[in-house]
């Protein structure tokens, strides 16, 4: 006899909302690190973040109901950091350091809530902007992306039969576990979950993180998701993002100031953090230009996170640069996080073995790889390339060039100016899949 | 079609052990407060705690399997305070005070584990002793009691049909909710869960605590269970227990030192804690004697927790004593926690309205009241009166007289000596039900 708990079933079928984001800690750790610095540097700077769907063929406004999207965004706005969460942020060690977050920052977090949003349907897509002080609009990036990705997955699985769903998740679990089995062949692997923003859903991400913890043991060093790090006693991992150089560049008054922007933010960063948090993103306006003009002290940083060139090429370029500057790459750290999956992880691991310290941030292909799993076929559950980027800084346009013109963002005129200042040497066009 | 998650079902049917105690925080808050003080006063004092089943008619060794009991006790010994738990203890405020636990104490807790146990079957009962430094043996009290109570409940529910179980819990839930509905008629009620040691089971206690939180709102001020307080963002409640005066008394070298023991522990306590933590237990060796010989400064304490006289009589006696000492009872606090249930809570609430501040610790009748709920009838799920008390201090016998001779513990010769020193005035014999 199968017994159903009637109260639970009735509740399951009648609740008002199944919230996707249930905690302000359900975000990437680097947001909190950056936020602490942004609050010092630019406490009131107006910055707009905007959703960008690089997978234009997927008409998000046709598959996600607007009322549902608003209900989820409204729910996220109702959240506050809880007492237990603030205690944990205050008391936990991050990257081996106690008291990473200052008491005045934590007191400020206690009052934090997400600002309003600006949502419109335009031609089958959602235009979604977050205006407000940088300290606030920035905190929308991760919840907005995880809400939209999970709403898309929910829409795709709506009205499926129980067997179809059962087989779907069975295949996805089997698929992930095969990846885990391959990865655990790499004895010195250092792997992190970076998949919050692109996840199929919160519960699925949690399953994936727990599977990695059990299957990879010490090779799995943590997660960028602060809530999962707290709940599973894992390390919270992350450093900084493109929004830092993008905002600094947008504020530049002339071309000389623009050219110096990528290094000014590193100066600011190292005034706040040290050690393994000194990881630079080289590609905001092109890696080649960044390395060519970098002051010597940049080579003293712990490492780089190449994010848009093919990983082996990017790693070789950086290693050569360290050597040219007289630094020993074996003491340095490269973090690869751009659309990685088992093949590219294995390839990088083998290619760089013994030459440099390596770590991998595994995102979309960890937490949202349902390709080939859907018993009904089709691509409704394939991941899409959805980002949420700085678009405007105090009325000025924001730009990201990256090493891959397909990943560039900003209006064409501003992009042209940045290309004039930074050049385009080393840029390589490649399709963006996830 | 009813669908069963096959992996979950297989795991449910094949796991090695369903642990009853899964965290060292699954204990009463006062244990941690006392422990911090004990570690200062008596870091190495050998103290034995022993199980006592006051419900002799229930032959525990006949209903609880010894191997299961050992497996649960062994599992509890494998536990450590986790990083997240220690961070919460360090960072949370208790009774409105930050940093209640000193860093050196928390560092010591990080290394803590429960000591070995000494278990024997004797005549249908278990003899269960915990030897070791007081700091360690004391920490067995709550997990040992909750393990035995839950094993008894599991034994009683083993091999029941699904319907019988469903109806059992439906009735128990309905029964508790009726109590909640009555209690919420009392607008100024202050109620706390004190039911960890006597609970039917951990999951049932959690349900009860959550039901109180939802049903009683502000009237439910917290729980003595530290783990549930952390998980549900409730206040952790508790002050001190009889073990303090019992050990101090056992150490007394002569009758004069014995007579002064109850006040010496209060001195020690107030050197560590203040405010609403200054709650005295008056009945370790009789309330009448305690009040009669109490130094005047005892009347400056915040309140009392009468624990063995009928509550109204005890309250009146204490109020008269405060008045005789020139204190205003309306500024004082009485905490009733001896076998309370809705009738006695209502009676006390009405009797003392406006005359003294009141608070209730609700134990067995909150977390283990299945009387009349079992569809098979019988009393296998009725609560029993099981305690775990100090029995020996550095080779000397430990004694508790209490106001009710039925609750006295200790060997007859030692009890006789204590009665000679403290007298028996005011003692009242009454059956002990829970």
From TrEMBL, chains A, B:
<keyword id="KW-0597">Phosphoprotein</keyword>
<comment type="similarity">
    <text>Belongs to the NAPRTase family.</text>
</comment>
<protein>
    <recommendedName>
        <fullName>Nicotinate phosphoribosyltransferase</fullName>
        <ecNumber>6.3.4.21</ecNumber>
    </recommendedName>
</protein>
<feature type="domain" description="Nicotinate/nicotinamide phosphoribosyltransferase">
    <location>
        <begin position="190"/>
        <end position="422"/>
    </location>
</feature>
<feature type="domain" description="Nicotinate phosphoribosyltransferase N-terminal">
    <location>
        <begin position="25"/>
        <end position="149"/>
    </location>
</feature>
<dbReference type="InterPro" id="IPR036068">
    <property type="entry name" value="Nicotinate_pribotase-like_C"/>
</dbReference>
<comment type="function">
    <text>Catalyzes the synthesis of beta-nicotinate D-ribonucleotide from nicotinate and 5-phospho-D-ribose 1-phosphate at the expense of ATP.</text>
</comment>
<dbReference type="InterPro" id="IPR006406">
    <property type="entry name" value="Nic_PRibTrfase"/>
</dbReference>
<dbReference type="Pfam" id="PF17767">
    <property type="entry name" value="NAPRTase_N"/>
</dbReference>
<keyword id="KW-0328">Glycosyltransferase</keyword>
<keyword id="KW-0662">Pyridine nucleotide biosynthesis</keyword>
<keyword id="KW-0436">Ligase</keyword>
<dbReference type="Pfam" id="PF04095">
    <property type="entry name" value="NAPRTase"/>
</dbReference>
<dbReference type="InterPro" id="IPR040727">
    <property type="entry name" value="NAPRTase_N"/>
</dbReference>
<dbReference type="GO" id="GO:0016757">
    <property type="term" value="F:glycosyltransferase activity"/>
</dbReference>
<keyword id="KW-0808">Transferase</keyword>
<dbReference type="InterPro" id="IPR041525">
    <property type="entry name" value="N/Namide_PRibTrfase"/>
</dbReference>
<feature type="modified residue" description="Phosphohistidine; by autocatalysis">
    <location>
        <position position="242"/>
    </location>
</feature>
<dbReference type="InterPro" id="IPR007229">
    <property type="entry name" value="Nic_PRibTrfase-Fam"/>
</dbReference>
<dbReference type="GO" id="GO:0004516">
    <property type="term" value="F:nicotinate phosphoribosyltransferase activity"/>
</dbReference>
<comment type="pathway">
    <text>Cofactor biosynthesis; NAD(+) biosynthesis; nicotinate D-ribonucleotide from nicotinate: step 1/1.</text>
</comment>
